[in-house]
Amino acid sequence: MTTYDDDNINNDDIPPGESNNRTFLIAAGGLGLLVLLALLCLGGYFFFSNNSAQQAEQTAQVQITQQQATIQAGVSQTAIAQAQTQAAQPTNTLPPTNTNTPVIAEATATSSPTSNPATATVGAAFTQIAVSTQTVIATSTALPATGIADEFGGPGLAVLAIALIAVIFLVRRLRVTPAR
Q1: Going residue by residue through the chain (180 aa), what tens digit of pLDDT does each one get?
Q2: Cα 166 from Cα 162, distance rounded (Å)
Q3: How far apart are CA 128 and CA 133, in angstroms?
Q4: What is the distance between the alpha carbons of residues 170 and 172, in angstroms, rounded to a whole number?
Q5: pTM above 0.85, yes or no
Q6: Measured between alpha carbons, how far is 2 from 131 in angstroms, rounded to an integer?
């Protein structure tokens, strides 16, 4: 014997379930449409940015070719001008003289601005410090172009943040709404 009685079940206490979940389907369709739109925008961005990058590269190569042609023409004209001036100059060389001139080294007294050698040493140290502080040390000031902000930019990240916040509020709203 069991204490369970089939006759005492009340079917009126069970809430009727939604037959077609219309709200969920609308929300899922909206999110799917948002994802599809984002993918289309991303594809368009890559297509157009790649196209402009190729055009910029081609333009740079054309400019480099033109610069090289201009430099080559200038070098050719300079070489021709130098050849013409060298051919036009007469060369008169004097014969070497046979006089033997002795070279005598003489010591000369140098005057120092200070009489104290310690003051001269301190002055030399200050000069070395001044020269070393004037030396320019090359450092890189460019920032690396890596990271999500460099890829999508600030406006893209703001739109993405707003969309994700909207998804959070929509999901919370759908969870709180009682079934009818």
Answers
A1: 556 555 555 555 545 555 567 888 888 899 999 999 999 998 888 888 777 777 888 888 888 888 888 888 888 888 787 777 665 555 667 666 666 666 677 777 666 565 677 777 888 888 888 777 776 667 777 777 777 777 777 788 888 899 999 999 988 888 877 766
A2: 6
A3: 9
A4: 5
A5: no
A6: 104
